[in-house]
Amino acid sequence: MAASSLVLVLLAVALGSLLLVWRARKRPRVRSACVVVLGDVGRSPRMQYHALSLAQRDFDVTLLGYPGSKPHGELLNNKRIHILHMPEINRIQVGPHIFQYGIKVIIQAVLLLYTLLLKTSPVVYILLQNPPGLPSIAVCWVVCCLRGSKLIIDWHNYGYTILGLTHGFAHPLVQLAKWYEKLCGRLSDLNLCVTNAMREDLAKNWNIRAVTVYDKPASFFTNTPLETQHQLFMKLGQAYSPFRASTEPLDPAFERSAFTELNPRNRKVTQLEGRPALLVSSTSWTEDEDFSILLKALERFEQWIIDGTNLPSLVCVITGKGPLKEHYGQIISQMCLKHVQICTPWLEAEDYPLLLGSADLGVCLHRSSSGLDLPMKVVDMFGCCLPVCAIHFQSLHELVKHEENGMVFMDSEELATQLKMLFSEFSSPDNRLNQFRKNLKESKQLRWDESWERTVFPLFTHT
């Protein structure tokens, strides 16, 4: 009985394997690609842009990842892009930490392999985001071997350095992740990366040749017209008090936000005299961004206003989702500020560019775990001609030019000093912020699609 049961199990495994191989060997369509994100698709803008760029060049694209945040409307409305979700796996809270992590990785590997082989058609290219690369690099390589596809890895950072922020770089799990990433990273047919510093590091330490593809803002990151700003502020004011007017207009027919006023007779929108400055920062609320630096700088800014320094009141909007949001939310709720208001909304994909295009200054606290990537949030801000104060790390100079398109700071005191300097002549048209804006406009930055056409598309056609 036991022997016959074993035979049946082996027969089922054999037939299943033959079925997988048969499906894998189906001929892929000539212009087809699968973009793989082992994360929230809606919070992976670079991979969304890859998918859009491929679709605009007549590729049939499957975008595979976890559900969660809503992707941009252009992606959802493109008939050549099919978004395929796979379930996100939470860590099983049983046994030692390494055991929990190992079980999670195994389940992820099985689900990803199953989804790629049984729920997607064969494609010419699999374009994979790294990190996370464990287990996705190995799984995608196996699928490429079975189906004759080309594996392209887009290196955004190193997964093991992100893991090291939590466990320490000497931890066995981190060392194992580094070994895996280094070994499996060499299995790809083509590698893209986000900075020249990362390209050089991949070549020197991992013997991986990559092509630098800088992040560029999509076309919808641009200056927001004043009328659209007003609509956005009124919309956000329904949920967040810092966007609401602090005083009523003299004419009750007028519509007023904290920053703008609409005359209903001629439909003209004007900025309020004495309006607060609008500061924006976006985040994933993770360990590589220390928001206590910004909060301390805002407390210093508040004290300068109390002491009589000629500075505007300030609305600080910190947008994003992530594991540390609740932690910082509790800290913010305990701050007693009168001249600085802080709110932490999650914005829809269509509203985020409008907010950046309406702001006066952006702040970036992304401190790269490897020192080799660049914050895409700054790229988006520059697309909106929004000056930025960014915390220093190794490769930041490839994006932020100090005192040219923004400022670079080291700590909270230096950030506070920069905020004081930038907002000290806020009402003057010749203030430092407007000089930075002028520099950004004159730089004539390439947009994502233009850059992709020049750098990435030729690689796809020749790989």
Automatic annotation (TrEMBL):
SUPFAM superfamilies: UDP-Glycosyltransferase/glycogen phosphorylase. GO terms for molecular function: chitobiosyldiphosphodolichol beta-mannosyltransferase activity. Keywords: Endoplasmic reticulum, Glycosyltransferase, Membrane, Phosphoprotein, Signal-anchor, Transferase, Transmembrane, Transmembrane helix. It catalyses: an N,N'-diacetylchitobiosyl-diphospho-di-trans,poly-cis-dolichol + GDP-alpha-D-mannose = a beta-D-Man-(1->4)-beta-D-GlcNAc-(1->4)-alpha-D-GlcNAc-diphospho-di-trans,poly-cis-dolichol + GDP + H(+). Pfam families: Glyco_transf_4, Glycos_transf_1. Gene3D superfamilies: Glycogen Phosphorylase B (3.40.50.2000). Pathway: Protein modification; protein glycosylation. Its EC number is 2.4.1.142. CDD domains: GT33_ALG1-like. Residues 265-438 form the Glycosyl transferase family domain. Mannosyltransferase that operates in the biosynthetic pathway of dolichol-linked oligosaccharides, the glycan precursors employed in protein asparagine (N)-glycosylation. The assembly of dolichol-linked oligosaccharides begins on the cytosolic side of the endoplasmic reticulum membrane and finishes in its lumen. The sequential addition of sugars to dolichol pyrophosphate produces dolichol-linked oligosaccharides containing fourteen sugars, including two GlcNAcs, nine mannoses and three glucoses. This is Chitobiosyldiphosphodolichol beta-mannosyltransferase. It comes from Sarcophilus harrisii. The gene is ALG1.
